């Protein structure tokens, strides 16, 4: 059974930093949510030589940029957000939203997903893209954490594969931080 990706559009959404980010309030929990689009992330070798930057229609008339991997052997995508931007006392999940093109290759080795919390705790997960559907957006769960009142440091989230072989055909839309319901 296919799991449909939740539409992150909402009536109370606000685009920030020249459409590099979007903020909205989750209807169930009342917690603040964020989408950090590809331009708000640090992408190693994020030059035109290795990545194509294309417009994608997000909601209504809004276009955002996505990053499409041409070819790299060292994949490294990183994001961060100040904990103070999130609602206190809520369990959040961090997800990378990606799509594999039909001709994408080099995904024999699993990706590593890492979540680094202000208190020094680090969560690691590995996920294989080999059996993931092609041509549709999927969410890769980096990990979960609970926000604390008064925390001002950053939560950091990474997606990487440093196996040294060439890969292509991955489209990175961005990273979502949202309450776990």
UniProtKB/TrEMBL annotation:
Pfam families attached to this UniProt entry: PP2
GO molecular function: carbohydrate binding
Domain of life: Eukaryota
Name listed for the protein in its UniProt record: Protein phloem 2-like A1
UniProt organism field: Vitis vinifera
